[in-house]
Amino acid sequence: MRLPYTPPEPPSDPRNPVATSAYEQLATRRHPLPLQALDLTLLHSPPIASGWSAFFGAIRTSGTLPPNIRELCICRVAVLNGAAYEWEQHIPLLKDCDGGKRLGAKGLRELKGAMRKIATEGPSGGPPHDVVDDGGLYYTDDEGRICFLPDQEEDPGSSVRQVAISNSRKPEDEEEGEGLSEQQWAVMAYTDAMTKDVKVNDAVFMELRKWFNEREIVEITATIAAYNCVSRFLVALDVGEMNNAAELTTQSTTGTSAGDSSLAGLAISA
User: Fold this and answer.
1) Which SS3 state, helix, strand or coil, does residue 137 take?
2) Taking the model in full, what pTM does it have?
């Protein structure tokens, strides 16, 4: 951590009620867990800590999103931004919720894999074509379907699922599982577009629109945007001292374990 953490107890100075109130607000939200490293960083500025807690409390507990969709957004943002602290705090929650338990090693490989960027023009529309890590090229056709150029190993199709590449190995103690659903792939593509490109391709948005209503899309968008803020804060200050981690691992070493359902759903990282 590039700054010292604040003390875990509120200041005793009665002339500083803002700080005392912020401590109490964060402690109430974390209960029964203690204040986290992120909290003890934010509390250098009590008004920021208070506003942060209220905002992320709404994101985490007041929306209508299924937990597996919310946590998928958060974990994918952590992967894209290299926020190991965020990943370690939230991957147990994803693995422990309905829709997350069936992911298995396959789903975690997909979650940690590279997703290809969708080009806006096809061959008839001329360049540019997007080149991905493995050299594959693809485009969207006039109906918004995702298509691969000839001589690619993948089969052309209309599913966002077909534009992902897995690049992580299976943990020895992890069942293979079912992997991501079509709905979860749509969320992954949207998360990638928002995080890496900011502007979202129409084909990616329409795939998301097939699965979610207006309120849910607003909540997905807010979650992705909010946790981009979290990951950037964590990495910039090296909160939790995890910036030098070799990679994002699928075995949590901090926070709750995947099998500790008694704490599932609690606000952990943000």
Assistant:
1) strand
2) 0.72
- Interacting residues of 37 by C-beta distance below 8 A, sequence separation 6+: 1, 5, 85, 239, 240
Beta strands in 41-92 (DSSP E): none
Of 95 and 172, the one with more pLDDT: 95
Cis link prior to 32 (omega < 30° from 0)?
A: yes
C-alpha 6/C-alpha 173 separation (Å) is 38
**Rounded-to-10 torsion of CA 223, 226, 232, 234:** -90
265 — pLDDT class (breaks 50, 70, 90): very low
> Looking at the predicted structure, is the pLDDT value of residue 190 above 60?
yes
**Which residues is 148 bridged to in the sheet?**
138
Task: Report the candidate in 115, 100, 249, 87 with the shortest Cα–Cα distance to residue 180.
Answer: 100
